[in-house]
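Suppose you are handed a protein chain with no further information: no name, no annotation, nothing but its sequence. What can you learn? This example shows the usual starting point.
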Amino acid sequence: MKDNASNADDLRLVLKAQRGDREAMDALVSRYQTLAYQYAWRLSRDPDEASDVVAEAFARVYTGIDRFRKESRFSTWLYRIIVNCYLDMRKREARHQHASIEAEIELDEGGVAKQFAGHEAGPDATAEGNVRSALLADAIASLPEVHRIMIIMYHVEMLGYEEIAATLGVPVGTVKSRLNRARLALKEVLAPHMELFSG
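A reasonable first move is to predict its three-dimensional structure. Written in structure tokens, the prediction is:
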């Protein structure tokens, strides 16, 4: 998460960009292009598609900077644009409507730790950690988009409920219920390997 000073700096750049300052806009792009690509890659798991998503997202930032309001962080607004670009691209490629990310999901609490990364030491533990990371990445990639987005935003990007709600434009309660559904789906995919994720 970016600290308050960085958020204030983002806002200064946004205000300048809204007044037509091209250097300020370029500074925002430079500041976020790597994070944007990493985020898009986690969504798509394809480097070319991630690059296309980022290019489209920043094009939308350029054309829509005047619509940015101070109520949210610039990073939250950018995440939302990236998610929208990714979903739009997938819809175009598939040529059919995917399940709506706005659909209500009601389920009990899931039980997946917020942070997946471990802190083991030694070659055996490191090798096991690498296997676990690869399994987890593949499992997340195999999830339906609506679940994958929730897992990535909460567990990988470490965004809080409120920031995810702001990014997706849904209530916090909806975020929690979708995240619970996504966790259960992830657990199901990982079930054959749960011995690696317990203890």
